[in-house]
Amino acid sequence: MSVTLVLIISIAICILVIFISALTTSKAYTSVKHTVDPIENNPHLEHMEKEENQKKEKPKR
């Protein structure tokens, strides 16, 4: 009987852990706003454009 009790408790703990992890994951996805960076005044975009221009200016051998 003690083995059965331990098995039931361990399954209950596993189900509880899965439920709590699913709950927290769904909360994380719904609470975060996904936004897109604007194109205007974006320093990363300016840096990428400079690198592309430098690559184009280098002559190929």
Describe the model:
Residues 43-61 have a biased composition (Basic and acidic residues). Residues 38-61 are annotated as: Disordered. InterPro entries: YtzI-like. The protein has one domain. The chain has two helices and no strands. The model has no long low-confidence stretch (mean pLDDT 81). By secondary structure, the protein is mainly α.
Gist?
InterPro entries: YtzI-like (IPR047753). Keywords: Membrane, Transmembrane, Transmembrane helix. The chain has 61 residues and is an all-alpha fold.
List the helices and strands and how they pair.
Elements: H1 2-31, H2 43-57
InterPro entries: YtzI-like
Organism: Rossellomorea marisflavi
Region (Disordered): 38-61
Name the descriptors:
transmembrane helix; YtzI-like; mainly alpha
Oligomer: single chain
3D shape: elongated
Q: Average pLDDT value? A: 81
- Beta-strand portion reads under 5%
Gyration radius (Cα, Å) is 27 Å
Estimate percent helicity.
over 70%
In the predicted model, the low-confidence regions spanning at least 5 consecutive residues are none
| SS field, number of helical segments | 2
Please, how many domains? 1
